[in-house]
Design goal:
Layout (H helix, E strand, L loop, with lengths): L5 H22 L1 H9 L3 H28 L2 E3 L1 H17 L3 H17 L3 H33 L4 H26 L1 H22 L8 H20 L1 H28 L6 H13 L11 H13 L4 H32 L4 E3 L1
Helix pairs in contact: 2-13, 3-4, 3-6, 3-10, 3-13, 4-5, 4-13, 5-6, 6-7, 6-9, 6-10, 6-11, 8-9, 10-11, 10-13, 11-12, 12-13
Length: 344
């Protein structure tokens, strides 16, 4: 399964590694390397185990969403599919915005469904995962608001979280209330784009406007179907929260592996904020996520820059590089096998 142009991917990784390298150079290569070398192997293994648990939990979010559509998939199958989707996000620019179309194609192929069904499924997973992230960041910020005096950096973070939460609520309410109008607007905007791409794509004919509108309608109908299954939606939110706690625990354990028992709230704040930086031109936010997490941890902990940098590198090793390895293998496996999904 091809996930992106190899030259574009290589250029993206090179850019991300340059940013990450500059970050390490600023802190001090020898100091960071020494801190990483001093990490507890036992705790580092725990970081990896928790990261695998995070992938499994979010795979179960996808399983719940597909279950709402009548697509039965095993827990192992969901883990593999979500790992492959994470791989796509991590090797394409702009994070999920770049990887989700590829993830949708993978889900559609494995589930033997239409492309818009796969796109609606992965979009629903993203929307579900957004809700606990805001709650987690709010709790982390609340802890420091009660126990310390917020600095200017945390005030900006707090204002951003508040605006994001308000936008999420207002957007969800208005989008649901006026969903027919939203659907018509999307169809009107997407149709000329799809037809233009089809004209220049070798071997493709421009689809009829009615056909594009039908695909858009199918996408929104799938979203409505998922939202209507309250039991599976509640299960998906529970699994999503469990996954976020796993990601947070992985960062907290990474700090602990270096001998720093920081408040869990520090990781609760840094992990969701760091994911925002994944929406950059660099694959998976490589370099940007690390910088945001280090900056926030520096603002709320008394840990030195070299230890924070080392801890974030350990954390990202388990939550960025490991999913690339696992997801890449899963992508290859799913490209030749469709046995992980059974029709409901």
């Amino acid at each position: 399964m091809v996930v992106s142009d190899s030259r574009a991917t290589a250029a993206g990784f090179l850019g991300g590694l340059v940013v990450l390298g500059l970050l390490v150079v600023v802190v001090g290569v020898d100091r960071v390397a020494g801190a990483v070398a001093g990490a507890s192997p036992v705790v580092a293994v725990a970081v990896v185990a928790v990261a695998v648990g995070w992938l499994l939990a979010w795979g179960l979010v996808l399983r719940s969403v597909l279950g709402a559509l009548g697509i039965d998939i095993s827990a192992v199958g969901a883990f593999l599919v979500f790992s492959a989707a994470t791989f796509a996000n991590n090797v394409t620019p702009f994070g999920q915005a770049g990887g989700e179309p590829l993830s949708a194609l993978l889900i559609a192929e494995v589930a033997d469904s239409e492309y818009e069904t796969g796109l609606a499924a992965i979009a629903s997973v993203d929307a579900i995962n957004l809700v606990p992230s805001i709650g987690l960041a709010t709790l982390g910020l609340g802890f420091y608001a009660v126990t310390t005096t917020l600095g200017s950096r945390l005030e900006v973070v707090g204002a951003s979280i508040g605006l994001l939460a308000a936008a999420l609520v207002v957007g969800a309410v208005l989008g649901w209330r006026y969903r027919d109008g939203v659907e018509a607007t999307v169809a009107r905007l997407v149709t000329p784009l799809v037809r233009t791409v089809a004209r220049v794509w070798p071997g493709r004919r421009p689809p009829a406007p009615d056909a594009v509108a039908g695909r858009v309608a199918g996408f929104f109908a799938t979203i409505e179907h998922i939202a209507g299954d309250r039991r599976r939606l509640a299960a998906a939110l529970a699994f999503s929260t469990l996954g976020w706690l796993g990601l947070t625990a992985a960062l907290w354990l990474s700090l602990l592996s270096l001998g720093h028992a920081t408040p869990f709230a520090a990781a609760m704040l840094a992990v969701p904020a760091g994911t925002v930086a994944s929406v950059t031109p660099l694959p998976g936010g490589l370099g940007g996520v690390e910088a945001v997490q280090i900056g926030l941890l520096a603002a709320v902990t008394g840990v030195g820059a070299e230890a924070l940098t080392a801890a974030v590198l350990v954390h990202r090793g388990a939550t960025y590089w490991l999913p690339i390895l696992v997801g890449g293998a899963a992508s290859s496996a799913l490209g030749v096998s469709e046995t992980v999904v059974e029709d409901a």
